[in-house]
Amino acid sequence: MGSIFIKGKTMKTLEKNNYEKGVDVSKWQGNIKWNEVINDGIKHAFIKMTEGGTYTDPQFVANWNAAKKTGISVGAYHYFRGASSTPEEQTENIRKNLTSIAFDTTKDWLAIDVEKRGNESVTPDAMADNLQNLLTRIKRDVLPNFDVIIYCSSGYWDSGVNWKKYDFSVHRLWVAHWNVEKPRLPKTWDKPGTTWFWWQHSSKGHVQGIQGEVDLDWVNTPSTNSYCSIL
């Protein structure tokens, strides 16, 4: 992977801060050669699993099994729909697909991807209510006492979700903020004692084993982040 310049720094500078390299992928990356990915220094991967109440990414199981086989740490992510699918439907879609893989609650991650696309007409109140409903159902019915991660950007989260209604800060943050030296945290997590767990810092990365562009991430591992280690 080539160095990416950010305001006078390269990503290798950030790597020295003990952040580890990750990617997030979906069907759009096609058939991935995961052995080449890990050999290019990637240690972690989030893989798209589901969206809404019915959709499953067609590459999910293949990506999951192949990435795990190499020793890459993996997580599955679900794209949240604030109105077109109910929290009940989305919970069942997540549950059904998690049963199709050997999901290990002691090692693997699950993230809920909260974005504007597909949710343009949903009110901030409805986004917050339905997201909290989904998170509650996952913890109660699918993965008891499991720490689900939230993916979002401050650009959408701060205005598109009524984040003050619930304490979403109990969930670790996967923040999206591209091509900057330091990510801007959504207001829920912008307070002392909290920080990001994953940071999606580019949407135009290049990694051996993946054709075309791919999202690049930094991972703030528990060994280097006291906030992560207490969750």
Automatic annotation (TrEMBL):
Under catalytic activity, the entry for this protein gives: Hydrolysis of (1->4)-beta-linkages between N-acetylmuramic acid and N-acetyl-D-glucosamine residues in a peptidoglycan and between N-acetyl-D-glucosamine residues in chitodextrins
Annotated GO biological processes are:
carbohydrate catabolic process; cell wall macromolecule catabolic process; peptidoglycan catabolic process
Enzyme class at the top of the EC tree: hydrolase
In Gene Ontology terms, what is one molecular function of this protein? lysozyme activity
Xref: InterPro entries: GH, Glyco_hydro_25, Glyco_hydro_25_AS, Glyco_hydro_fam25_subgr
**Assigned EC number:** 3.2.1.17
Please verify whether the record's keywords include Hydrolase: yes
Q: Give the highest taxon in the source lineage.
A: Bacteria
What Pfam family is a match, any one?
Glyco_hydro_25
Arranged from A to Z, the UniProt key words for this protein are:
Glycosidase, Hydrolase
Family stated for the protein in its record: Belongs to the glycosyl hydrolase 25 family.
- Enumerate the PANTHER family for this protein: LYSOZYME
Full protein name? Lysozyme
Question: From which source organism is this entry?
Answer: Rickettsiella grylli
